[in-house]
Design a protein that fits this description.
Elements: E1 43-44, E2 47-48, H1 96-101, H2 133-137
Antiparallel strand pairs: 1-2
Length: 144
């Protein structure tokens, strides 16, 4: 439902570009912390969403345990623009070729190497909000 860009935040509070993204095995460990892989941080517009413990997702550590209470796992009750609950989504790291092979939208090419030629920056809006054909063609049931 969301296409990730270089400035998109992870739950570890580092951006996608700060993770190890230029490797063939798709190991997206963070260069700046102990985060083992990039995971898209869901937001409601520009605001972080809340866990069922009522704290923001940004108040949970890279392992998703809450830093303000005894909550051990981030459980988001937010509903995505596609109509499915956020907890039913997963972060998938795919190249442009992999998405084309499965019939998923790809957007416009970008010179940013870590994106694998996946999308242009104009295509980073949620699927239903994109103005290019990549939003219109997708059925928005794929994971993040």
């Amino acid at each position: 439902c969301e296409l990730i860009g270089p400035e998109t935040m992870c739950y570890c509070q580092h951006r996608y570009r700060q993770h190890r993204t230029d490797n063939p095995d798709k190991n997206t460990a963070c260069k700046n912390c102990r985060c083992k892989r990039y995971e898209f941080c869901i937001k409601n517009g520009t605001q972080p969403v809340r866990c069922k413990c009522k704290h923001y997702s940004t108040e949970h550590d890279a392992h998703k345990a809450c830093t303000r209470c005894a909550c051990k796992a981030l459980f988001i009750t937010f509903t995505c623009a596609c109509g499915k609950p956020a907890h039913q989504h997963a972060t998938a790291v795919e190249t442009k070729e992999e998405r084309l092979a499965t019939g998923k939208p790809v957007g416009q090419d970008t010179p940013y190497a870590a994106m694998g030629g996946l999308t242009g920056f104009s295509s980073l809006a949620a699927g239903y909000m994109r103005m290019d054909p990549s939003g219109a063609l997708g059925d928005c049931v794929e994971p993040f």
